[in-house]
Design brief:
heterotrimer, A mainly alpha (531), B alpha+beta (202), C mainly alpha (45), A: 531 residues, mainly alpha, Cytochrome C Oxidase, Chain A, 17 helices, B: 3 helices, 33% strand
C-alpha cells in the first residue's frame, strides 16, 4: 500500500507502537473492532458462567448451592452483561471492522471518539460486577438483585448494587450513543464515490437503523435510571405513589427503550445474513430493496409497541388491543425478511461451510422465536404466559439463536478476512452441531415448563417441574462447554493456520473482499469508485 | 489522495443534529412524567380517580359544564358490585380494613361505607390514603363525595377510628362493567419519605 | 489489493447438482409446511 500523507483520520504519520500503549491510544478502526470483539467474547463467558451457576441451582428443586438473594443477583447481571457487554459490543465490533471496508472508507469518521467509546466499556463492566466482589469482603449486599428490568419500587428499595448498575448503564449508554453517532456519520459522509444509499451493503443498512434506534431510545433509559437514582438518594418521587409518582411509569419508560433494544441487537445480524446466504448459495441477494424497507418498517414499528411487555400491569382494553395488533404487525416486515433469506437460497448451489450452517440454524431457530413471540403478543394468551419460563425460552430463541448465533455466523464468515488465516472447519462444524443440539436441549423444556406454569426468576420450584429443569440444566452445561471450542478455534486461527485468500469465499461479493486478508493497517486511502 | 472526494461533507453539522436527537430523547423521558399523569387523569388509565376535581366538574369547570344536561337519576335497571380493600404501606405501623367488604349499588345511587383504621404504635402518626380503582375505565365514573383520602389523617397512640367514604357510581359508567374494586394504600407522612442514604435504624 | 480469483472447490457438474438439490429441498419444505397447515385446519378444537 502507498504511504498516505493525509486523510480524514489524520493519524497516518503516527509511529507504530507496540504493546498496551498501542491498544490504549489506537484510533484505527480495525484495532478498535478487534478490541470490541475480544471484550465481547470475554464478557460472553462471564455472563455464561453466571447463568451456569443459576442452572446448577435449578438442577433440583430446593435450595442447594446459593441463597435466593445471590440467585436474584446472578439472573439480573447475567442479562445486563449478555445484552450490554457481549451482544452490543460484538455488533459494534463488526461495524468497526467491516463498515469502512464495505463502503470503501479509509476509517471511521470520528476515530478518537471511537477509541473513547470502546474504553468506556471495561470500567462499566467492572462497575456492573464489582458489587459481587465487594460483598465477598462484607461491603454492601451484592449486585443488582431486581432482574435486569430495574422495576420500581423494588429497585428504589434495593441495595447499593442498584446504584452500581445505574452508573454502569449510564456509561454503557454513553458509549453506545457515541458508537452510533460515529457509524451514522461514517455511512452518511464517507461512502465511496458512486455508492448511493441504495447500493449500500445490507449490513451497513441494518446497522444504520440500529444506530438511529439507539440514539432515539437509549437516552430514555438513561432518563429513567436517572429518575431512579434521584428517587433513591435525593428525595424525588417519580416512581413513589406516596409522593404522587407512579411505579407503572417506570415500566413505560423502561420498555420504551427495552423493546427497540431487541431490534437494536438483531438488526445488525439481519443485515449480515443476506451476505452469508448469497455467498454460500452462489447467487445474488434476493429482494435487496424489500429488505431495506423491512428494516426501516421494523425500526419505526419497534418504538410504538412497548407496552406488550406489561399487559398484566393493568391497561384499558383499547390500549391492550392497540398494543396487541401493533406488535403482531411487526411480524409482517419480519416475514418479508424470512422470505428474502429463503428465496436467496432457493435454487442456489449451496455449500455448507460453518458460516452457512450457522446462518441456516439462525433462520430455523429464530423462526421459532418469532412464532412464540406471536403467542405472547396475544393479550388473552399472555395473561397465562406472562412472567413464566415460556417467556424465558422465547427470548433466548430470539437473543441466543437470533443474536449470538448470528454473531457467530459473522465471526466465522469474517474471521479469515480479519486474521488472514482459515479457521478449522472441523472444529467449526463440531461447534455448530453441539451448539444447536444443546441449545434446543436447554430451551425446549423451558417452553413446556412455562406452559405448565413455572414462573421465571425463582431459585426453587414445585416438584412437578423437576425433570424438565434437570434436562434444561444438562443442556445448558453442554452449551456452555461447547463455546470453549469456539474460543479455541478463534485462538488457533489468530495464531496461525492455512493462509486465506483476499476473496476468502469464492463467490463473495463486496468491496471488503477486494482487499488482502488480513487487510493492510490503512485500507481504502484512495477510495474506490463504484459504477 | 483527496481528489476522489470533492468538498468533503461536513461531519460537524451531522453530529450536531444527532446530538440534538439524543438531547430530545432524554428530555422526552422527563416530559413523560407530567404527560403520563395528564393521560391518566383524562382517560382513567391506571385507576386514577377524579376525586375532588370531579365534584368541581359538576359545578362547571370555568362555567363550561353548567349548560350540559343534568345526569340522569338512579339507574335501577342494573347494579354494579363494588368491592373494598386496603393496604398499609411498609413503615407505617397501622392496621386498616373495610367494614363493608362489598356492596351492590345502582349507578347514580349515593352510598356510604367505612374503613376501620388503627394505630398500633404508641406514638401519634399522620398518614395519607391514596385510592385506586380497577378496572381503569370505571375510574372516571367513580365519584367520591366524601373521603378520608381527601386529607391527611392523624391517629394518636393506639387510636382506632372509623373513616367514612361516600361515593356515587355515575350512571354514565359502561354497561359492560359489573365489578369495581376500590383499593386504598395508606402511606406514612411522618418525617416524610426517607431516601436510602438517609435511612435510619428504626 | 490482491484479488486473484480463488480456485473453485466445486466442479460445474457439482454446482449444477447442488442447485437442483436446493430446488428439490425447497419444494419439499413448502409441501411440509402446507401439510402442517392442512392438518391444523382439520383438527377439531
Amino acid at each position: 500500500m502507498s504511504i498516505a500523507t493525509t486523510h480524514p483520520g489524520g493519524h497516518a504519520a503516527e509511529p507504530y507502537q507496540g504493546g498496551l500503549r498501542r491498544w490504549l491510544t489506537t484510533t484505527n478502526h480495525k484495532d478498535i473492532g478487534t478490541m470490541y470483539m475480544m471484550f465481547s467474547l470475554i464478557m460472553f463467558f462471564v455472563g455464561g458462567l453466571m447463568i451456569l451457576a443459576v442452572r446448577a441451582e435449578l438442577f433440583q428443586p430446593g435450595l442447594q448451592l446459593m441463597k435466593p438473594e445471590f440467585f436474584n443477583q446472578l439472573i439480573g447481571i447475567h442479562a445486563l452483561v449478555m445484552i450490554f457487554a457481549a451482544l452490543m459490543p460484538a455488533a459494534t465490533g463488526f461495524a468497526n471492522w467491516m463498515i469502512p471496508l464495505m463502503i470503501g472508507a479509509p476509517d471511521m469518521a470520528l476515530p478518537r471518539l471511537n477509541n473513547w467509546g470502546f474504553w468506556l466499556l471495561p470500567p462499566a463492566a467492572i462497575l456492573l460486577t464489582l458489587p459481587f466482589t465487594l460483598a465477598l469482603f462484607g461491603i454492601g449486599d451484592g449486585a443488582l438483585a431486581t432482574g435486569w428490568t430495574f422495576y420500581a419500587p423494588l429497585s428504589v428499595q434495593g441495595g447499593m448494587g442498584v446504584d452500581f448498575a445505574i452508573l454502569a448503564v449510564h456509561i454503557l449508554g454513553i458509549s453506545s450513543i457515541m458508537g452510533s453517532i460515529n457509524i451514522i456519520v461514517t455511512i452518511f459522509n464517507m461512502r465511496a464515490p458512486g455508492m448511493t444509499m441504495m447500493k449500500l451493503p445490507l449490513f451497513a443498512w441494518g446497522w444504520l437503523i440500529t444506530a438511529f434506534l439507539l440514539i432515539a431510545t437509549l437516552p430514555v433509559l438513561a432518563g429513567a435510571v436517572t429518575m431512579l437514582l434521584t428517587d433513591r438518594h435525593f428525595g424525588t418521587h417519580f416512581f413513589d405513589a406516596a409522593g404522587g409518582g407512579d411505579p407503572i411509569l417506570f415500566q413505560h419508560l423502561f420498555w420504551f427503550f427495552g423493546h427497540p433494544e431487541v431490534y437494536i441487537l438483531l438488526l445488525p445480524v439481519w443485515g449480515l445474513m443476506p451476505h452469508v446466504l448469497a455467498t454460500f448459495s452462489r447467487k445474488p441477494t434476493y429482494g435487496y430493496k424489500a429488505q431495506v424497507y423491512s428494516f426501516i418498517a421494523i425500526g419505526l414499528l419497534s418504538v410504538v409497541v412497548w407496552a406488550h411487555h406489561f399487559f398484566t400491569a393493568g391497561m384499558p382494553v383499547p390500549a391492550l388491543i392497540y398494543f396487541m395488533f401493533s406488535t403482531m404487525a411487526i411480524s409482517l416486515p419480519l416475514a418479508v425478511l424470512f422470505f428474502c433469506w429463503i428465496a436467496t437460497m432457493w435454487k442456489g448451489a449451496m455449500s455448507f461451510e460453518t458460516p452457512m450452517l450457522f446462518a441456516i440454524g439462525f433462520i430455523v431457530l429464530f423462526g421459532i422465536a418469532g412464532l412464540t413471540g406471536l403467542i405472547l403478543a396475544d393479550v388473552a394468551a399472555d395473561a397465562q404466559y406472562h412472567h413464566s419460563y415460556f417467556v424465558v425460552a422465547h427470548f433466548h430463541y430470539a437473543l441466543f439463536a437470533g443474536g449470538i448465533m448470528g454473531v457467530m455466523t459473522g465471526v466465522y464468515y469474517w474471521l479469515p478476512k480479519w486474521t488472514g488465516h482459515m479457521y478449522c472447519e472441523k472444529l467449526g462444524k463440531l461447534h455448530f452441531w453441539l451448539t444447536v443440539f444443546s441449545f434446543n436441549l436447554t430451551f425446549i423444556p423451558q417452553f413446556f415448563l412455562g406452559l405448565a406454569g413455572m414462573p421465571r426468576r425463582i431459585p426453587d420450584y414445585a416438584l412437578q417441574f423437576a425433570e424438565f429443569n434437570a434436562i434444561s440444566t444438562v443442556g445448558a452445561f453442554i452449551l456452555g462447554l461447547s463455546q470453549l471450542i469456539f474460543a479455541w478455534n478463534i485462538w488457533i486461527t489468530v495464531r496461525g493456520g492455512k493462509k486465506a485468500e483476499g476473496r476468502v469465499w469464492e463467490s463473495a461479493e463486496g468491496l471488503e473482499w477486494e482487499l488482502s486478508s488480513p487487510p493492510p493497517h490503512h485500507s481504502w486511502e484512495t477510495q474506490p469508485v463504484i459504477k | 489522495m483527496e481528489q476522489a472526494r470533492t468538498a468533503p461533507p461536513s461531519h460537524n453539522r451531522l453530529i450536531g443534529r444527532l446530538l440534538l436527537l439524543v438531547a430530545g430523547a432524554f428530555v422526552f423521558a422527563f416530559a413523560m412524567v407530567p404527560l403520563y399523569d395528564v393521560l391518566c387523569q383524562v382517560t382513567g388509565f391506571n385507576g386514577k380517580t377524579g376525586g375532588q376535581e370531579t365534584i368541581r366538574d359538576n359545578f362547571g369547570f370555568g362555567g363550561l359544564k353548567t349548560a350540559t344536561a343534568p345526569e340522569p337519576a338512579v339507574d335501577l335497571t342494573r347494579s354494579v358490585r363494588v368491592e373494598f380493600t386496603g393496604t398499609v404501606m411498609p413503615g407505617l405501623p397501622w392496621d386498616m380494613r373495610p367494614l363493608t367488604l362489598s356492596l351492590d349499588v345502582h349507578p347514580g345511587e349515593l352510598q356510604q361505607v367505612t374503613y376501620l383504621v388503627r394505630n398500633t404504635s404508641n406514638r401519634s402518626i399522620t398518614g395519607q390514603a391514596v385510592p385506586s380503582v380497577t378496572p381503569g375505565q370505571a375510574a372516571q365514573h367513580f365519584e367520591k363525595i366524601e373521603c378520608f383520602c381527601f386529607e391527611q389523617q392523624t391517629l394518636g397512640p393506639g387510636e382506632a377510628r372509623e373513616m367514612p367514604l361516600a361515593f356515587i357510581v355515575k350512571p354514565a359508567v359502561d354497561r359492560s362493567i359489573s365489578h369495581i374494586t376500590l383499593s386504598y394504600a395508606f402511606f406514612g407522612l411522618e418525617g416524610q419519605r426517607q431516601t436510602l442514604t438517609s435511612r435510619e435504624v428504626p | 489489493m490482491n484479488a486473484e480469483p480463488t480456485p473453485s472447490a466445486f466442479s460445474d457438474d457439482d454446482l449444477r447438482r447442488r442447485r437442483a438439490a436446493a430446488r428439490r429441498l425447497g419444494w419439499l419444505l413448502a409441501a411440509f409446511v402446507l401439510g402442517l397447515y392442512l392438518i391444523g385446519l382439520l383438527i377439531k378444537r
